[in-house]
Amino acid sequence: MPVHLVATGGTIASTGFPGPLAAARDGAALLADAGVTADVTVTDLATAGSFAMGWDDLRRLRTAVAEALEAGADGVVVTHGTDTMEESAYGLDLLLDDRRPVVLTGAQRAADEPGADGPANLRAALTLAADPATRGDGVLVCFDGEAFAARGVAKRHTLAAGAFRGPVVHRAVDGTVRRVAHPVRRRALPLVAGEPPRVDVVAAHHGADGTLLRAAVAAGARGVVLAAVGIGNAAPDVVDAVGEAVGSGVTVLVASRVPEGPVSPRYAAGGGALVDRGALLAGDLSPWQARILLGLALAADPAEARALLDEHLT
Ligand code: ASP
Are 153 and 166 in contact (CB under 8 A)? Predict the structure, then answer.
């Protein structure tokens, strides 16, 4: 069966250079832009910016991808805005249980911008999705000649074509795919009806206090990701606010604002105090991907959330 394309918008589908840009091109136009003549079936899900996406979009995207796989596609490519691609990729990775490849891609330069990178990215993503060698890798993000595992991928540059960094799984070179590593795969999470509960990301920083964390709880958050400083530290009033949140039944995950490396209770008054107050450590997940995991785990079964988190945070 052919590879299936799910088009959602983003810069790859945007025109209006030099700006303001707006997503306008559908999947067929993207394939034509890329000079793709192979048989590729298409679902036009949206022509939207990913900066406006949320849980409902993730659910619709997961449904569209699952339907394409159920219909027999060998693999699925999703064109998507880059701003929240790392959240959608990880969310799909958590919610899909299928060995066939699902590859997200997009662009940093608009479809009508000189040097547009969308066509090359789309061609590489289609090559990956059609290659049986990518089976079992889970969801991948393909950008600028590299394919990254969904877990750990992050947009690291606002403008450069090589926008993403993360665990490289394949290199797409001159129309071929070369494996670099095997991603670690974990059990899929169940897809449940309804939206996940509110989960907020609150940042620690120089001079931070617990006001925003307390506000998140007051707004109804059932989960909070603390984007801590360094290896997972925060100031005393933030630690106190974490203790209050945990005491009222809110799950608090500690990630770091530093782009690479794990969090650890290395400092008694920092991460040590957060763990003492009942916070869980998010390992090396970014705050943004930790929020996706926490929301889906709490939605699946709040009573089982701890076990699901333990499994996915190691
Ligand atoms: N800069 C974004 C993109 O690359 C906009 C978005 O996320 O939709 O598509």
Answer: yes
| Amino acid occupying residue 19 | G
For residue 219, with 0-12 CB atoms within 10 Å meaning exposed, 13-18 middle and 19 or more buried, which class applies?
Answer: exposed
Which domains occur in the chain, in start order? 4-179 (3.40.50.1170), 199-313 (3.40.50.40)
**Residues flanking ligand 1, CB < 6 Å:** 10-11, 49-51, 81-83, 106
**Best probe residue, ligand 1, of 8, 12, 14 (max atoms within 8 Å of C-beta):** 14
Beta-bridge partner residues of 204: none
Q: Are 296 and 243 in contact (CB under 8 A)?
A: no
Reported as a single tens digit per residue, the pLDDT across 272-288 is 999 999 999 999 999 99
Q: Which of 197, 287, 274 is nearest to 243 (CA)?
A: 274
Point out the catalytic residue in the list 8, 11, 79, 127: 11
pLDDT digit string, tens, across residues 231-276: 999 999 999 999 999 999 999 999 999 999 999 999 999 999 999 9
CB distance 34 to 119 below 8 Å? yes
pLDDT reading at 302 higher than 80: no
Q: Which residue has the tokens 């990301």?
A: 201
| CA 186 from centroid of its chain's CA atoms | 15
pTM exceeds 0.85, yes or no: yes
Which class for 92: exposed (0-12), middle (13-18), buried (19 or more C-beta within 10 A)? Answer: buried
